[in-house]
Each structure stands twice: as C-alpha cells, then as structure tokens.
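thought: user wants a sequence for this fold. calling inverse folding tool.
action: design(structure=
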C-alpha cells in the first residue's frame, strides 16, 4: 500500500490550510504591534505594561500550540479533520463540491501520484493542511 501526498492547487481547503497558519501568525503580529504602538504613541510611560502584554500574547500563542500538539480533540477543533474525497475507486462528487474542488484538480492530483484512473484509489483524503493524500489499491496477487 503506497501513501503519498500531492498538492492540489485550486482547492479552497488547500488555500485555507496554508492561510490558517499564516492568519494565526498575522493575528499574533497585529496584537503585538497594537500593544507596542499603544506604549510608543501614548505618553503614559507604561513601557513595562506593553512588554507584559506582548509576553502574554506570545505565551498564549505557545500555549495553544502546546495544547494542540498534546490533545487530539483540541487539535481537531483547531486544525480540522481530513475529508474523504474517494473510497474504493469511487469519487464523491458531493465531497468535491463541499470543498470547492474541481474534478480536474482532483484528477491532476491523481496523475501526480502516477495513477491513471480513480479506480486505482483505495482512499483519497483532503488533509487539513490542504494536501491530497492518496492510498492506492493493493495489487491482488
């Protein structure tokens, strides 16, 4: 049984998976920037409070990452779960529509894995990170 991951450009989940990490980092940067801006622009002299605020934001970011790495339930809530796109050689058009993935993008991902037909697929999943993971049918000996 061979398992590989193929990029699926054009799929909304691919974009969302990559953007989720970028958005979290961007949110942290915006919060840190806003906290520092307040300390720099305001004339209240509370530079120590700004650094405490920044340290709190960064600590919360690390804590969320720590909890997500150790709790499968929390990680599923934060990251999401894989979506089954095909099983036992049959593509689910409803799953492709639900994830805004054109059939051509799915076929391209199969070709990238060296598959010529969806009947060669045991299971294909759209992972939370946006990659398509393909498990081939085991050859019958």
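)
observation: tool returned 141 residues.
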């Amino acid at each position: 049984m061979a398992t590989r991951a193929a990029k699926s450009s054009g799929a909304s989940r691919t974009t969302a998976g990559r953007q989720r990490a970028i958005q979290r980092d961007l949110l942290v940067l915006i919060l840190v920037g806003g906290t520092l801006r307040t300390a720099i622009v305001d004339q209240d002299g509370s530079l120590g409070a700004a650094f405490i605020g920044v340290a709190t934001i960064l600590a919360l970011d690390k804590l969320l990452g720590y909890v997500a790495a150790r709790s499968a339930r929390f990680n599923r809530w934060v990251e999401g779960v894989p979506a089954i796109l095909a099983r036992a050689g049959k593509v689910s058009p409803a799953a492709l529509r639900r994830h805004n993935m054109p059939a051509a993008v799915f076929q391209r991902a199969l070709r990238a894995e060296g598959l010529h037909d969806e009947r060669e697929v045991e299971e294909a999943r759209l992972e939370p990170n946006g990659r398509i993971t393909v498990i081939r049918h085991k050859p019958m000996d």
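thought: summarizing for user.
answer: Here is the designed sequence. The longest helix spans residues 12-41.
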